[in-house]
Write a structure and sequence with these properties.
The complex is a heterodimer. Chain A is mostly beta strands. Chain A is built from 3 helices and 11 strands; from the N terminus they run E-E-E-E-E-H-E-E-E-E-E-E-H-H. In chain A, the strands form 2 sheets. Chain A has a 6-stranded mixed β-sheet with strand order 8-1-2-11-10-9. In chain A, strands 3-6-7-5-4 form a 5-stranded mixed β-sheet. In chain B, the strands form 5 sheets. Chain B has a 6-stranded mixed β-sheet with strand order 14-18-19-17-16-15. A 5-stranded mixed β-sheet of chain B has the order 6-8-9-11-10. In chain B, a hairpin with a 2-residue loop joins strand 16 and strand 17. Classes of the chains: A mainly beta, B alpha+beta.
């Protein structure tokens, strides 16, 4: 199989100085951060909800989801609205970048040690350019609802 | 042959027929000699048999066939209806309903119905006579023509002419479609069914030759003739039918006028017979009536929701436009905005109406329930249903069945007395149970009223104390209304013995929580020996509620008006502290005071250091059942009709909110789940 035959289109974004990517077919839109309504009682990484063209969309802070502190909202901040299992969820990221084609043979299994606790949220890594690494998100895991419930349950106990 | 694409239609129609059969069987018991009724029952059963057979659900077909034999015998006066017979027939209908459900869920109609079938067969006193005698249709003219393969529509019945005329008047095109099936076609009836479906996708079938009943029985050679009123052109129609396999020849010709016109008179008849029309609509497909049929359309609910979403967006922009107009004092602009406002208001009403359905759909299942309960309990009950045409949001209707059932059971079991007891009290031995629905402003009221013994408050209290629902101390100070309301408390049942009807541990307590989840309320009023009335108040729609917007710090929340008892300014109320819990005086009692800021941990709240600041702000008294909580906020922004949107799948487990809404400035606001707020507060208090 030639590399031409199996290509993956990903949207790149930046977080904590690292480059992440999500498959373009799962991305519904990219939005500026405006008018997030805080949602009390939700897990801490849930920033709140936002009205996006009459659809109430949950916004999650990916950095906080990965337990890497929380994001500061700057003019560069973006919300990448993704779709997974018929849910649309907005990912708050530091900035969004270009769309990139990656050959399937560029992808590698996620090494155990990358990113520490966040490794489980990655589906693969790929080398782009000389010394840049692209971390491909495993959206299913990132948007795992059991975690939302579990974290909240802990909060309730407290 | 793949029939899966017809499954949806089949299920819908099967349910419709089943409901007809249920309704008509109820009537049959009292009017066993009504031949029109018997014919109608027979036709419904017959169509059900035909369509289930075509879809390949043989169990269902066989059972319907056995039932059909009974109806046929009834119709031909070979046997007469009795209560026992009706029981067995109902049993059969229950099996059919279960089969339909199971077809929908698993695609299979497997079910053990041998016992019922045996009983049904015993009714007619003969084993399956597979080909029951030829159906004598009431409409002989059509029958005579049916076996003439050359039949043309030159000889139309008067009523058929009226339909053609009407269709032409509505600017629909009327075509005569002659279809010849392959000689070796095996499932002729199935093909005919597919052709009919194809035609109905485009319009309405006005008539067929031979008649539908004959088609279903495959009593025709290869030739079928349809007369249909459609909106599409000849080409499309032809194409649609040609794609059905085993069609050997097709001839479509347009009919543009009808020589004789006795239409107006006929039209009226059709209109007045609209109700019966529904009953026989699908069974007597040969005489599909455009008046009733052409005006309805099945639309996927998702599409309506989508339309709603778009409309809401429009509403938000309308709000912006209104602001721009009021800032700019441009008269043309203001006029136009005003006009847009009027039109969008009407649009909103129309859109909401799309989701409305008559409450009849739930009410319909209760006559049977009451019938079987009264037999079981040996009680005589006259069941009166009123206001079935009252319309409610479809979502509400779907959820309403269970709570109503529990209340009806309760009235049957605990309310209405045994005939002998009633007589001893000087009452009519036959009790009356009324189920009524009516509009009241923006609400729909559903009442379940019996003329029975009324609530035995002493017994209720004893039981409540015994079951630790209330303490003896509390019991002494309770008002009659509060005692009555104990019926809805969880884990409460006053039945002397656990009966099969109510008192199974689940019951009225489910009712209250269910009704509240629909943003409604339920109350009970009772007078000894005069009866008990359950009153359910429901919002007409769940998609739009009236809410009070309240603000604390920068955050705005919506409180459904159904939970609000009253509002006050904070400086008007007297607050004090008991065991770390702030409370306030409210009508001679003391209720807990909850700050919105604390409850939702609102951040960055500028603390007002000025004197008397703790007296600023507003208080909203919320109630749930007889429990009340006062909620404080910085300010009340006013009442508004808001569109309710769910929090969505990802956040569905986050507690505290019954939904969200979009404010005029496009931001999302959360709708407070008042029931939870009140109950959480109770637990906090108990802990303290």
């Amino acid at each position: 199989m030639t590399s031409q035959e199996k290509q993956l289109k990903v949207i790149l974004f930046e977080m904590n100085g690292e480059t992440y990517g999500v498959p373009v077919e799962q991305v519904l839109s990219i939005e500026k951060v405006d008018g997030i309504t805080r949602l009390p009682n939700a897990a801490s990484f849930v920033k709140g909800v936002m009205n996006l063209r009459s659809i109430i969309t949950p916004i999650i802070d990916v950095r906080e989801r990965f337990q890497m502190g929380h994001s500061k909202i700057t003019p560069e901040s973006r919300i990448i609205v993704v779709e997974q299992d018929e849910m649309s969820v907005g990912l708050l990221v530091d900035s969004s970048k270009e769309v990139l084609d990656i050959d399937a043979d560029q992808l590698e299994q996620t090494p155990e040690m990358i990113g520490g606790s966040s490794a489980e949220y990655l589906s693969a890594v790929a080398k782009i350019g000389e010394d840049q690494l692209l971390l491909l998100l495993n959206l299913k895991q990132v948007l795992n609802q059991n975690d939302v419930a579990a974290l909240r349950a802990i909060g309730d106990e407290a | 042959m793949d029939m899966s694409q017809y499954l949806g239609i089949f299920l819908d129609e099967a349910r419709e027929h089943l409901q007809n059969l249920n309704d008509q069987l109820m009537t049959l018991e009292e009017h066993s000699d009504d031949s029109e009724l018997l014919n109608s029952i027979f036709r419904s059963a017959h169509t059900l048999k035909g369509s289930s057979g075509q879809m390949g659900f043989n169990n269902m077909m066989e059972l319907t066939h056995t039932m059909e034999n009974v109806f046929d015998a009834l119709r031909n006066k070979k046997i007469t209806a009795s209560a026992d017979m009706v029981d067995v027939l109902f049993e059969g209908l229950d099996h059919l309903a279960a089969m339909i459900d199971s077809i929908e869920q698993s695609g299979s109609d497997a079910r053990d119905v041998a016992e019922t079938k045996k009983q049904l067969e015993a009714l007619t006193g003969k084993k399956d006579t597979s080909k029951s005698e030829t159906v004598k249709s009431s409409n002989d003219g059509a029958m005579k023509q049916q076996n003439d393969p050359q039949a043309h529509f030159l000889k139309l019945e008067d009523y058929e002419k009226a339909y053609v005329k009407q269709a032409l008047d509505q600017n629909l095109k009327v075509y005569e479609i002659q279809v010849t099936l392959n000689k070796d076609c095996v499932l002729k009836a199935a093909r005919a069914y597919m052709i009919a479906n194809a035609l109905e996708e485009e319009g309405t079938i006005l008539a067929t030759r031979p008649a539908t009943e004959a088609i279903e029985k495959e009593e025709f050679d290869q030739k079928l003739v349809y007369l249909a009123a459609v909106a599409c052109d000849e080409q499309k129609l032809k194409h649609k039918i040609e794609t059905i396999s085993e069609v050997a020849a097709l001839d479509v010709s347009s009919i543009s006028e009808i020589e004789e016109q006795r239409a107006p008179q006929k039209q009226q008849t059709v209109a007045t017979e609209k109700k019966r029309d529904q009953t026989s609509r699908t069974s007597a497909a040969a005489v599909k009536k455009p008046v009733a049929v052409a005006k309805t359309l099945r639309v996927n609910l998702d599409r309506i929701d989508q339309l709603m979403n778009l409309f809401e967006e429009l509403m938000i922009d309308r709000g912006r436009l209104e602001r721009v107009a009021s800032d700019n004092h441009h008269s043309d602009l203001s006029d136009t905005v005003e006009k847009i406002k009027r039109v969008t208001n009407q649009m909103q009403e129309t859109l909401l109406n799309l989701r409305m359905e008559p409450i009849e759909q739930v009410f319909n299942r209760f006559p049977r329930l009451v019938r079987s309960l009264s037999k079981e309990l040996n009680k005589k009950v006259n069941f009166v249903v009123k206001g079935g045409d009252t319309e409610l949001d479809r979502t509400v209707i779907e959820e309403l069945g269970d709570p109503l059932m529990h209340m009806i059971r309760n009235s049957m079991d605990h309310g209405i007395e045994l005939p002998a007891v009633r007589e001893a009290k000087g009452k009519n031995p036959e009790g009356t149970l009324t189920l009524a629905a009516y509009y009241n402003g923006n609400q729909v009221i559903v009442e379940i009223k019996d003329d029975g013994a009324g609530i035995n408050r002493e017994k209720v209290l004893d039981k409540a104390i015994e079951k630790n629902v209330v303490t003896e101390e509390e019991a002494r100070t309770m008002t009659e209304n509060q005692i009555d309301h104990l019926l809805f408390a969880s884990g409460f049942s006053t039945a002397d013995k656990i009966s099969d009807i109510s008192g199974r541990g689940v019951g009225l307590d489910v009712v209250e929580s269910k009704i509240q989840s629909l943003n409604g309320t339920v109350e009970v009023v009772s007078a000894p020996d005069q009866g008990t009335t359950f009153t359910v108040k429901l919002p007409m729609t769940l998609s739009i509620i009236n809410a009070l917007l309240i603000q604390t710090g920068e955050e705005v929340y919506a409180v459904p008006i159904t939970s609000i008892t009253e509002t006050a300014l904070k400086r008007q109320v007297k607050t004090f502290t008991i065991h770390d819990q702030t409370v306030m005086d409210y009508r001679e009692s003391v209720i807990p005071l909850v700050s919105l800021a604390d409850y939702f941990a609102v951040p960055d709240r500028k603390t007002d250091k000025r004197e008397g600041s703790e007296n600023r702000g507003a208080v909203v008294i919320l109630s749930h059942g007889d429990k009340k909580v006062a909620l404080t906020a910085d300010q009340l922004l006013g009442y508004q009709d808001v569109v309710v949107k769910p929090l969505g799948k990802y956040l569905e487990k986050v507690p505290g909110f019954s939904g969200t809404t979009i404010l005029g400035d496009g931001r999302a606001a959360l709708i407070i789940d008042c029931q939870r707020l009140i109950e959480t507060n109770k637990t906090i208090k108990e802990r303290a």
